[in-house]
Amino acid sequence: MRKPRDFDAELKALDDRARGLKNRKVQQLGELVIAAGADVLGADELAGALIMMAETKDAARKEAWAKRGAAFFQSRARRTAPPVERHSGGARAQPGGAQPATGSKGAA
User: Fold this and answer.
1) Count of the separate structural domains present in the chain
2) Residue 4 falls within a domain, yes or no?
3) Running DSSP on this structure, what letter comes out for residue 90?
4) Per the domain annotation, does 72 fall within a domain?
5) Quick one: 28 and 61 in the same domain?
6) Are residues 34 and 49 in the same domain?
7) pTM higher than the cut 0.85
C-alpha cells in the first residue's frame, strides 16, 4: 500500500521556501540600492523615483533606463574581477585588498 502524502508538511516547506525567496529578494534590492549609490537619497525621494518609473508608459524611456542599467552591471562585473577569477568559485581577495560589493556584505 502506498504511503499517504503529508500535505501539511509539503505546504509548510513551500511556505518556508517562499519566505526565504522573498527575504533574499528584499536583501538583493537593498544591495542594489547601495551599489547604485541611491542610498544617499531619502526614503521619500527613492520611493517617489521608483513610483514614477513604475508608472511610466514611455517605451523609449524604459529602454534607455534598461540600457543604462545593463551598462552599470557590465561595468561592475569588469571592475570586480577578471573573467578567469570570477568563475573560480573561490572568495579570493582583490588586488589592494578590495572585495567585490556582492561578496561578503549581507551574507548570513
Assistant:
1) 2
2) yes
3) S
4) yes
5) no
6) no
7) no
The continuous run of DSSP H or E covering 100 comes out as: none
The burial of 27, by beta-carbon neighbours within 10 Å (0-12 exposed, 13-18 middle, 19 or more buried), is given as middle
CB 41 within 8 Å of CB 49: yes
pLDDT tens sequence across 93-103 = 444 444 444 44
Give the HSE-up count for residue 76: Cα atoms under 13 Å, Cβ half-sphere.
15
Cell numbers for 65, please give them. Answer: 533606463
Cβ–Cβ under 8 Å, residues 27 and 106 = yes
Greater confidence (10 vs 82) lies with: 10
DSSP state of 18: H
- Looking at the domain assignment, is residue 8 inside a domain? yes
Check whether residue 6 and residue 34 sit in a common domain: yes
Is 89 strand, coil or helix? coil
Domain housing 14? 1-40
